Amino acid sequence: MSPVLRTRRDGSTRPARHRAVQPLAVLWLTLVWLAMWGEVTPLLVIGGVLVAVLVCLAFPLPPIDLASGVRPLALARLVGRFLVDVVRASFQVSGVVLRRRPVRNAVVAVDLESSSDFVMTLVASMLSLIPGSVVVEARRSTHTLYLHVLDVPDAASVEAFRRDALDLEQRVLRALPPDAPVAPHAPDAPEEVGR
């Protein structure tokens, strides 16, 4: 894989570097640390920052630039619909539990349309947070999610879940469109001369 080049102001290029310790990642990990402890004290904040820095150094990730691609209105729709889906699914799961009848579950494969790892991760996380489904495998090579889904009595229910998952992916793509990969320039093929 060729290195990503960053253009300088004078027009020359140099390999793009990313910092292992990213401030937003440190802030997010520190907040998660404080949430796990359930309280905020100066010692826990300092400990959380140290743990976050160590995690960033041990598991460096390339930066994700979303500032240019966030569409606020579509993002608000995505979050609003997600919250509605969580509440609706909570009632559905409660109904399944209270009915006390045999439940048929299934593992459903969802082939995502996007080839973005970020989109796949976000869709998988959101689907797992909605009660009644959990991701059991994510295949990066084919961008396929395998989800264990509660109460799918027939093939129509499986297809309905698959459609809902693909609709969620489309809402994510509208809210956070990934950068289009730049295809390398291929030389023009020589024209064939007729005989």
From TrEMBL:
<protein>
    <submittedName>
        <fullName>Na+/H+ antiporter subunit E</fullName>
    </submittedName>
</protein>
<dbReference type="InterPro" id="IPR002758">
    <property type="entry name" value="Cation_antiport_E"/>
</dbReference>
<keyword id="KW-0812">Transmembrane</keyword>
<feature type="transmembrane region" description="Helical">
    <location>
        <begin position="43"/>
        <end position="66"/>
    </location>
</feature>
<comment type="similarity">
    <text>Belongs to the CPA3 antiporters (TC 2.A.63) subunit E family.</text>
</comment>
<keyword id="KW-0472">Membrane</keyword>
<keyword id="KW-1003">Cell membrane</keyword>
<dbReference type="Pfam" id="PF01899">
    <property type="entry name" value="MNHE"/>
</dbReference>
<feature type="transmembrane region" description="Helical">
    <location>
        <begin position="20"/>
        <end position="37"/>
    </location>
</feature>
<keyword id="KW-1133">Transmembrane helix</keyword>
